[in-house]
Fold each of these.
Amino acid sequence: VAPSPPFITPHFSRKAVTDNPEPLPHATKKRTHTMPPTPTTPAATGAGAAAAVTPEHAWPRRMVRFNPRSDRFHTLSFHHVEFWCADAASAAGRFAFALGAPLAARSDLSTGNSVHASQLLRSGNLAFLFTAPYANGCDAATASLPSFSADAARRFSADHGLAVRSIALRVADAAEAFRASVDGGARPAFSPVDLGRGFGFAEVELYGDVVLRFVSHPDGTDVPFLPGFEGVSNPGAVDYGLTRFDHVVGNVPELASAAAYVAGFTGFHEFAEFTTEDVGTAESGLNSMVLANNSEGVLLPLNEPVHGTKRRSQIQTFLEHHGGPGVQHIAVASSDVLRTLREMRARSAMGGFDFLPPPLPKYYEGVRRIAGDVLSEAQIKECQELGVLVDRDDQGVLLQIFTKPVGDR
Ligand SMILES: [Fe+2]
């Protein structure tokens, strides 16, 4: 899609979200993660695909960015995101087909694990793990995920349906990250263990039943995922171009306390800059804050509902249907979002993911005004055909689209 070699940036958008979004022609944006329009079905975890192209000149110029580099421990990147589910093969199969992320590793009965069935999907640096409990009476020593609890997983699935249990970060030292986090006020979830082969592993509570998992390992390891997992080769698998996680968003009842907790133990800074005027929350029904690590490659946005607005807050709807706080959406980056979308849309009706309805045609007149110097007319037409949203700020042009909720709740 890019006229010059593409680079990926986190995505930005205005805070207010409407059903028929209009690009903002002037600098009233608060830099934040992008929210999907209010869904017409109960909120559940969704996925956005995003790609950015280099601008020829910065626009707008009034943004102020500040990075205090205040991390309490060294975080390198997202490592994986784990869903707890009732049947890992079924959930993983659907995501693999929908996202073009083939099975890359597994730990289950076939590898001698009688505690949990886990399947790992990969596309580029994107790694989705799906884990389900086996029946009671298994040999606990065979589990490859030491923190796994079959009872907790059953409760989790009953309470939340298919949902994210762990957001895993690759850190320099998992034990050190755990210690620094607990010193900074984190509630421990699983004390550090050495998994062997140089792998460290620990967990702290994040929000609701979601944990932040720390994984450390040597560079250039030949372990396919974590020790205990066996690699799966898929020579014929199709990749749709998805490359990595961009951000993973949590919905919480109260932003201030949740953000203070997470920022307090991670040291992550607020990844947002206010310009001359903030965009009102009257329409969006939410307040949002993005927490970022030093390198700003790990973004953890948080949303809270705002009550008393014209339309019911989609965050409140999520909290009720999901059964409390949880991961609302996952943004995944693509090197070529139009290609990725063609691949994904081709599978929507056959068990893949479906997308939110496209904006009205007049939206793309605005796109020509704000991004006509970066995107060709053919690219803008393709964005319109595929329903891609276009935003621009001082760091580039962002192309993105939102799936409909990918689960029931
Ligand atoms: Fe987002």
Amino acid sequence: MITFIVEDRDGTQVPIEIPEGINLNLMEVLKGSDYPILATCGGMALCATCRVQVINGAEQLPPPGDAELDILDTLPFVDESSRLSCQLRVNESLEGCLFRIPQED
Ligand code: FES
């Protein structure tokens, strides 16, 4: 099992357990768990509505790719803790991470 923690907008933290080897990205897991993630572009790294803040574990995640960096660069309200959840594969790199759902823009 891969276990990470998600903090909702009201500060509630819930551990999420995902079986290893599953072919999902974090956006799909968050949507499937009914978090308020719009993901209007469907995971194409175009809309940034799947944005999360990485509170713990950022250093263990794969670095953002060019498409992700390009869109994060265009957003004035984003800081260096922000990642696009659609670009994060659910694998052991997420183990123990804490992701916060950002407040609405
Ligand atoms: S779903 Fe649109 S950028 Fe991630």
